[in-house]
Structures are given as structure tokens and as C-alpha cells.
Amino acid sequence: MRVVDEGEAAREPDGEPLHVEPRWPIAAACSLFIVVTVVLRLVEPHGVFVGARWLVPGLEIALLVVLIAANPTHLARRVRWLRPVSITLIGSLAVVATVASIHLIVDLVRGSPVTESASSLLASGATIWIGNALVFGLLYWELDSGGPLARYRGEREHPDFAFSQQMNSELAPAGWRPLYVDYLVLGITTSTAFSPTDVMPMTAWAKLTMAWQSLISLTVIGLVIARAVNVLS
Questions:
Q1: What is the pLDDT of residues 162-217, one digit of tens each?
Q2: Which H or E element spans position 161?
Q3: Which of 47, 140, 229, 232 has a 20 to 30 Å separation from 87 between CA atoms?
């Protein structure tokens, strides 16, 4: 398959458009998280939020628009501005999740109205945890092996993440490649198990990013649940 220039539609050798990966799962996941964050902000207005109250939903909506802007149904085009902008937005949300976690820890140590209310505390923790899983899943999806199109075309010899289907080819059909749902599950399992499960990080950035995600999740689950149980009792 020939190399595709920036801004040029990707095509198969026979001239047909290259349908790499549907975007509706990404749009559905982002939309669900936007709904969750907005609802939690309305239900628990005193929760832990970073910056202006609508900063995070605004970043999420901007990310959703960017991810579907090039092609609303398939990742079949390289647009010059799409990848750096999407990485910047995803990275910004990851930083927001980290800052929110630090803010919550400070509140737990020093005491605040949020930490005295189990519902506000759990709502804040749930927002951070869900966002942590979704945002890091998107980050893995966007960065692994150069991105979705690069993975489809096999531009890199070695992946940043090794999935079980790649390590054991007999477990998957020929030509199998990870899609967004695989990275979403990776984000969820990392936030839950605090360590690799069935996907192995192979490069330094992948290992460090998973460690970063695990630390955020461990802090939220450990401290928030412990404090919430204490408040309820």
C-alpha cells in the first residue's frame, strides 16, 4: 500500500476509500462521559472541580468535535491539524484528572465541606475515576504505534502495547489489530487493577503512562472510599 500524504484521503490499491475504524464507539463513550460529568456537576455542585465549573465538559465537547471532524463515520483520512489537536486535548484532560486528584487529597487531609458529605465525595471520586479510565484509554488509542491509521497500515514494526491476540496469533483472526474498544478496556482495567492485565506495555512512555494512571486511580479509590465509609458510619 502506498504512503498517504498529509491531507490526502487514504485508499486501497484498487482506489477504494480506506475504512480503518468506525468512530461511533469513541463518540458514544465521550458523549456518555459528558453526560455523566454534567449531571454530577448539577446534582453535586460542591464537588471537587478544577477551574471553571464547565471547563472539563467544555474540553470534552471540544475533543468530541475534533475526533469526528475529519470523517464522522470512519478514520479514513489524515488531516494535518487533527492528531496534534486531539493529543493536546486528551493530554489536557489527563492533567485535569491529575490536578483534581491532588485537590481531592488536599481536601481530605485538611478537611472541607466536600469531605464531610459522602454524596459529594463519592460524586467527585466517581467523576475522577471514570474520566481517568476514559481519558487514558483515548490516550493509548491515539499514541499506540503512531495512531489508528498507522496501526492499520503497519507503519511501525513494534507496538507500544502488546495485546494477547498479538502475542498469540492463534487466538485471533489473521490481520487482527486493536480498535478503540480494546484501549477503552485497557483504560478501565488499569484503573481497576492498578497494573497491566492482558495488555503489556512495551515502551517507556507506555509503562510510565500506565503507572501515572494507576497512581491516580489508587489514590481516588483508596482515600475516597475510606473517607466516605467513615462519613457514612
A1: 998 888 878 888 888 899 899 999 999 998 888 888 899 999 999 999 999 998 88
A2: strand 161-163
A3: 47
Q: At what angle do helices 24-43 and 55-69 cross, to 10 degrees?
A: 170
Residue 165 C-alpha from the chain's centroid: 21
Cell of 123: 460524586
Residue position matching grid coordinates 453535586: 44
- What's the pLDDT tens digit per position in 46-90? 555 554 566 666 777 777 777 766 554 455 555 566 778 778 878
Q: Say how far apart CA 72 and CA 185 lie, in whole Å.
A: 23
Terminal CA-CA length for the chain: 63
Q: Are 136 and 105 in contact (CB under 8 A)?
A: no
Q: How far apart are CA 82 and CA 160, in angstroms?
A: 21
Cell of 74: 470512519
3-state secondary structure of 5: coil
What does residue 71 show for φ and ψ, rounded to 5 degrees?
Answer: -155, 115
- Best-predicted range by mean pLDDT (112-116, 143-147, 217-221): 143-147
For the chain, what is the total number of helices (H) and then of strands (E)?
9, 2
Q: Give the residue from 81, 93, 109 showing the smallest Cα distance to 55.
A: 93
Residue spans per domain, the chain: 24-232
